[in-house]
Amino acid sequence: MTPGEIEAALQAAIARCDAMNYPLNPQQQQILRQVVLESLCKEGLINSNRQEWQEINPLDELTLEQRQSFLQFVREKERQERPWKVQLMNDWLQERDSGSVQFIRDRFGLSWLNRIEPSHFEKYVEIDDEPPMKLKVGDRIEVSNALWEWVQDEGPCSRQWFVCTVLQVNEVRNGEDIITSCIIRLINTGMEYEIQGIYQWNRYYWRWLQR
User: Fold this and answer.
1) What superkingdom heads the lineage (predicted)?
2) 90-99 residue pLDDT tens
3) Distance between CA atoms of residues 145 and 177, nearest Å
4) Most CB atoms closer than 10 Å: which of 103, 119, 149, 195?
5) Are the beta carbons of 133 and 116 closer than 8 angstroms?
6) Is-contact 118 112, C-beta < 8 A?
7) Do the beta carbons of residue 124 and residue 72 sit within 8 Å?
8) Tens of pLDDT along 135-173?
9) Residue 204 gets which letter from DSSP?
10) How many CB atoms lie within 10 A of CB 113?
């Protein structure tokens, strides 16, 4: 079974509990996932060392409408330079309604929220979309060698990924458009590079660090 198939089966079980008026709270859902994965690993049906089994994208668990509301919420908070996760936590601690994303608290809870990493957003963002998560100084990302050399999917010069740290982020307005560049430092060599159009023409050549 693939991670997607396992998640689909778990979601079907959770939905059946709801239909029979025995809904599982977020903590019970998390326990269910953990027990199922541990059982599959014990039976040798999946390899517990493979990261893909441990890193099922939490955004896959949302409906299309929920995911759109959540991504819009994240984008708005990023534009306001207010950490979206902190905003949700403050709402919950102070018993405030979170508006269009209140369903996260009611349906999914803190355990789901803590699973979200920046890399999870990439699956649901098209190349010409505004990214939900903006780069900040100190972020760790991976950049492709396609930024500075010709690469091929097959051949002697293949694509490679290098971990780096974001040192500086700059925005320049060009008419109605805002062009973002950033300066990065490669972890393995210490070399520094400036990447122009990080959200525009060079969007294909970087990704959030895969944990």
Assistant:
1) Bacteria
2) 888 888 999 9
3) 27
4) 195
5) no
6) no
7) no
8) 889 989 999 888 888 776 666 677 788 999 999 999 888
9) G
10) 16
